[in-house]
Amino acid sequence: MTIGAFRDSFDFFHNSWRNLLTAALIGLAAYECAELIIEDHPLRLYSAGLVVLGIVAVLAILKDWRRGVYCFVAWIAVEDLIRKYLAIT
């Protein structure tokens, strides 16, 4: 395997600084998730996951309105389940 193969796999943003920043943020997120798992705070971990899903959904909606409609329909389908299992009233 050559170094060029690794370079092509990390060419996501076409900018080495953005790639480095993305790798650092992913590492930080993994560290924080590991800390929450070790400290046995599953509710905070679930809440953080919901925040990340919300951010992804907002970005998808802003990128294409049709995806927004699909996200809205999916949200309607699972909204009550999230509230039921996380005991959010």
Q: How would you describe this protein?
A:
This protein is 83% helix and 0% strand. The chain is mainly alpha-helical.
Outline the fold blueprint.
Layout: H1 3-9, H2 16-38, H3 42-63, H4 65-86
Helix pairs in contact: 3-4
Assembly context of the chains: single chain
Strand content: under 5%
What is the terminal-to-terminal distance?
53 Å
The average pLDDT value, as a whole number, equals 78
- Percent helix: over 70%
Radius of gyration: 18 Å
Largest sheet composition: none
Overall body shape = flat
Q: Give the low-pLDDT segments.
A: none
- Number-wise, the strands total 0
Order of helices and strands: HHHH
Class by SSE composition: mainly alpha
Number of helices: 4
What attributes does this structure have?
89 residues, mainly alpha
How would you briefly describe this protein structure?
With 89 residues, the chain is mainly alpha-helical.
